[in-house]
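Hello again, I could really use a second opinion on something today. I owe you a coffee for this, so here goes:
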Amino acid sequence: MLTKKHLRIRALTEGAMLVAAAQVLSYLKLYTFPQGGSVTPAMFPILLYALRWGLGRGLLAGFAYGTLQLIFDGAYAWGWQSMILDYLLAFTPLGLAGLFKGKAWGIFPGTVLGCAARFSVHYISGVTVYRITMPTEIPGFGVFDSAEVYSLVYNGCYMLPCALIALVIAAALYVPMKPYYEGRDLI
């Protein structure tokens, strides 16, 4: 039986390891977009941590990861507003996966919710902060005069593949990691 103190230490340790794993995976860029955003498998460890330890700790892990991205990943930003939205706030909602803590198959709706929430923050940033670059061209998609459509297309181009990668990883690891996903080893 694990005591509360042991659980806190374990949560902190796992959080540090999974945030570090996410940071390392963020350097495995399958594609990088010219104004920031890249396709990587990096979201999965944060989603996993949130699912395992719950909403509060998951949000904190997402915030920690966003801070590391801001510091170490060569932040592409148009000012302090963009830094806050696209890094500190955008990665934090990945922790919403924690709403599905202990639920059978919770990794899947948790991943969808966390990724959708992260996309929403990037979308708001694109509509508000990046409006200054209008009109903007995305090669292969044309020129956009609408900040709303531009933000939808641009952020969707990397967020959708990232979400799909996280779902594929979750599915591939589901059977061997089911007890971990469900937190059965913490009882």
Observations:
- The two ends are 7 Å apart (CA to CA).
- The mean pLDDT is 89.
- The chain has one domain: 4-186.
- The helical segments are 4-25, 43-53, 55-72, 80-91, 107-128, 147-182.
